[in-house]
Amino acid sequence: MGILHYIGLKKSSRQLFSGLSLDEAVRLLVSSPHDFSTLIPYLGDVFIPTQKDLEKLISSEQENISRSLADTSEKRRARLKKTPVKPRRSRVYSYVYERSADVITEALLRAKGKCEGCGNNAPFERKTNKPLTLNYIILCRFQRVALTHIDNVLALSPNCHREMHDG
């Protein structure tokens, strides 16, 4: 039985999913104006899409890790026996800010290969753009959208970059 059987389409629609993989067909169903969410899980475990907000996903993961760390190794190992080897794939929606490459480049060149957080040399050298070996971070925590200006940018080592974000 195929996808058409599950969604109740008739013979006239037979070629609708012709030549498509299951993933492609499910993507079409997900993007349809009709709600097929109750049917999609029955099409197989190859692709079970869910829509999640990136911040919520990260927050949920951190909470789950904290709970797991607080638990005993025996309880974690018991849960691991029931955990699917293949992770579930989710669709995540996120917004990004497109920053000025010139501002970023000026900050990286200003740093001259030294982290502007700890002052140490950059820990590695990129194969391309060799002097640009540091990450950058946009400062200004009090605004919803930090302005992309040379005075608002630091060139940081990966460790300092992580420290700025996570504390």
Structure notes:
By secondary structure, this protein is mostly helical. It has three domains: 3-42, no CATH class; 51-95, no CATH class; 101-166, no CATH class. The protein is built from six helices and four strands. The protein has helices at 3-7, 22-31, 54-70, 73-82, 101-111, 158-166, and strands at 51-53, 91-93, 135-138, 153-156. The protein has a two-stranded parallel sheet with strand order 1-2. The protein has a two-stranded antiparallel sheet with strand order 3-4. The protein is flat. It starts with a helix and ends with a helix.
Tell me the layout of helices and strands.
Elements: H1 3-7, H2 22-31, E1 51-53, H3 54-70, H4 73-82, E2 91-93, H5 101-111, E3 135-138, E4 153-156, H6 158-166
Parallel strand pairs: 1-2
Antiparallel strand pairs: 3-4
Features:
167 residues; two-stranded antiparallel ribbon; mainly alpha; 6 helices; 37% helix; 3 domains; single chain; HNH nuclease domain-containing protein; flat; 8% strand; 4 strands; two-stranded parallel ribbon
Short description:
This protein has 6 helices and 4 strands. With 167 residues, it is mainly α.
